[in-house]
Design goal:
The structure is a homodimer.
Chain A: H1 3-19, H2 26-33, H3 37-43, H4 47-71, H5 77-94, H6 102-110, H7 115-138, H8 149-170, H9 174-189
Helix pairs in contact in A: 1-2, 1-4, 4-5, 4-7, 5-7, 5-9, 6-7, 7-8, 8-9
The structure holds a DNA duplex.
DNA sequence: GCTAATATACCGACCGGTCGGTACAGTACC
DNA sequence: GGTACTGTACCGACCGGTCGGTATATTAGC
């Protein structure tokens, strides 16, 4: 991979994260990088291709910065899950509630406009849910029985995305923190633990109980 | 209010809901309504003004179609809350997972681009949370003690928005339904009820327990 | 070791088209 | 005859993308 290509993708990722895909012009990216237009179109055949490259870059960054250190740690699977949520929290705090989740942003912007982007984003969200699901699965020994892991993992993704949205629109981390705290308390009810292992909490997250 | 003005707002609301604000052109709206450009700028001094009018229109529609019938019903406050969630569910189903939540869409698109829109959207989200909070407050008699109503209501908003996002990107109501079912089960743990009123569930949603 | 050929990297002018917005003449109604 | 409304022509800025052409480094043939 060319270094300049990576440099374009890096800059484009940042601008698109803040301004959205359609609202980011090629000229915005050229101005930031100093790359000239003819050169840009040597590396990317279209803005669309850049968009896909940006998605891959963002996934890689997220894995490298947030996931990998936690996965490599000695924590229990359940605590890893909590730490992922905390990592997302500190990401938003660091960004001062600007940008939000780049995947959530692009999902809402593009899902009804561009089927190709929608499919890639669907895969990304599926991956997010599967990350939580595999952590929950690894934590099965820590959990009460009858928990629908797929459903709970989807729920976690929704709370995370919804919480980040609230932070972005309120320009405050408080509402997101409130949501995440509720989520953690909810998750702790799935845990076989000192509070209540066999009583009322066990049915939470069960299938077909409604 | 002029009838034609309302007609423009109605059409603009639909298009903006599907394509986003910046990605909807004035010409899109003119084509849909048959209104000519000079006429449009007689009723709206700018696209921005139209955007604010669209937000007001969407709020009105949401109240009229989803909230008012439920508020006027004889249900208990707690059941009203459940019915609001169900109403949001059927809205997404009816739209075949297209569009998503217009407020969530615009919040993610515009919060970092336009401070005026951000502020109005923040108010709207505050209103959503307050709606749930007031229902929870009215349901206080049905609830266990020590529930942080503000925090829980914020949590509900996040799950709703996150769930709708998942429906939109997956083009399926299933992930959203899963989230909403988890949410309802969570809410039922806040309820003073036959399952467990004084045991493990009461601490859910409490402040400062972490 | 020189030259010719080739691939990669880069440049900036330019394209057709669209954007939000304006100017202004015409018209319908009181 | 004024006022509220409507239609059309038009504006400059910007959009994504293309174009012909250049600089440079590598390689091949002799």
């Amino acid at each position: 991979m060319s270094e300049k290509r990576e440099q374009i993708i890096e800059a484009a990722s940042q601008i698109i994260h803040l301004k959205g895909f359609n609202n980011t012009s090629i000229d915005d990216i050229l101005q930031r990088t100093g790359v000239k237009k003819g050169n840009f179109y040597f590396y990317f055949k279209s803005k669309e291709e850049l968009g896909f490259a940006v998605l891959e870059h963002l996934i890689g960054e997220f894995h490298r910065r947030c996931l990998a250190p936690i996965q490599a740690s000695a924590d229990t699977p359940f605590n890893k899950m909590i730490r992922v949520i905390d990592a997302l929290d500190s990401e938003q705090a660091k960004a001062q509630c600007c940008g939000g989740c780049p995947f959530g942003n692009m999902a809402l912007e593009l899902s009804d406009l561009h089927e190709g982007f929608r499919q890639r984003l669907e895969e990304i969200f599926r991956g997010m849910a599967q990350l939580f699901q595999s952590l929950l699965k690894d934590a099965a020994g820590e959990l009460v029985e009858g928990v629908d892991l797929e459903e709970v993992s989807q729920f976690i993704v929704a709370v995370v995305e919804g919480g980040i949205m609230l932070a972005k629109v309120h320009k405050s981390i408080t509402p997101m923190r409130q949501c995440f705290r509720q989520l953690k308390q909810y998750l702790s009810t799935l845990r076989r633990g000192p509070i209540d292992a066999s009583g009322s909490a066990q049915w939470l997250g069960k299938r077909n109980t409604q």
